[in-house]
Amino acid sequence: MRTDYLAFFLSLFLSRLADQVLLFLVPLIVFQTTNSASLAGLAFFVETLPRFLAFPICGALCDRYSPIRLLHISQIYRALICLVAMGLYGLFGGIGWLIGLSAICGVLTTQGIMAREVVMPHIFPDYRYGKTLSYSQIADQTGLVLGPLLAALALEICPWWSVVIGVALVFVAADLAMRVWQRNSDVTLERFDQHAYSWTQPLRIAFGHIFRLAELKKIILLAVGVNLIVGVTLASSAAMVIGSFSESKDYYAGLQAVGALLTIAILFVLARVSLPLKLLGAMSYIALLLGAFVTATSASSEVYLVGFLLIVGFDKMFNVYMRSIRQRVIPARDFGKTVGVITLLNNLSQPLAGLLVGVLTAPIGLRGVILINTLAAAVLGIGVAAVVRLRLATAMER
What we know:
Layout: H1 3-34, H2 37-53, H3 55-64, H4 67-92, H5 96-123, H6 129-157, H7 160-184, H8 201-212, H9 214-244, H10 249-272, H11 277-297, H12 301-329, H13 335-347, H14 349-364, H15 366-397
Helix pairs in contact: 1-2, 1-5, 1-6, 1-7, 2-5, 3-5, 3-13, 4-5, 4-7, 5-13, 6-10, 6-12, 8-9, 8-13, 9-11, 9-12, 9-13, 9-14, 9-15, 10-12, 11-12, 11-15, 14-15
């Protein structure tokens, strides 16, 4: 792999690693300080909600300004905010500074994610786009897995505020790797004139593409189904493994690690093998449905493991399919603003799945909630397939 490519993926890995350390740190430190699970959950909500809401705005900014410049801003400002917040903590004390810095860093993380999404189709001419997506998700997934492990290890040997300072240094390292990529890359991104508009116009443009392009409507509906499955799995896995099957916390941690390794293995295969997009989408969606059904009906932790691995492994395969489709059909000048809105719509079903777990577990049981989500995802998948077939049949008759 070329030096500039390695530098780009290293920057992605380091940025995700630092971000995951912060995500892990906040609820843990709040719980250890207050001994309140409710406050820890509230802190997690406060630090993650801005990330969720920022996607449309950050996507629009990527169409209006240089996404590479926005990437640098995302990384350097996160490092700066970590240092400033820890300085304020040293002066005044209190864990509110940690929660605040994580919320602000969450928005900047979203900006970095959207900026990379915009630049990736254009900066790897030697790779097909599916291969680029696979390698980028390997870097992302590795940071996702190692972040909490690194945070836990660091907390064993130093206080939490020094871990945050270490996070700032990792963000700086991510930006330096990005600058190495820039220095070794000769790629020039095409820029599009973005006329002055009101703050609502990017949303109107994005929704205009979504309503006009059948492919976008298809992948949004399928992504809603996928996120119903992923959301209910994330919300219920600890209760199923530790509660229903009476396994240890070490077993649960091992389950997460095996899932991450399988995901990386699948992404490596996708980087090496070119599969038709239709096959990629169908295979991943069916595997996710099968995995969800297995987790809902499993009689032992070993059977649950199979279903869980199908879900976490093929979720990333579906992600490659979805991102390939939207890169192909969305006009380049409106890519950022449209992907920002799509990402927001795609992820609405994940908190909905968590809410269903909270509301329906008592009356129908956890397995019943998983089955309801699986059924809803199956209905969405069958509905999309039926509409696609009807459209093809209509086109052939003409």
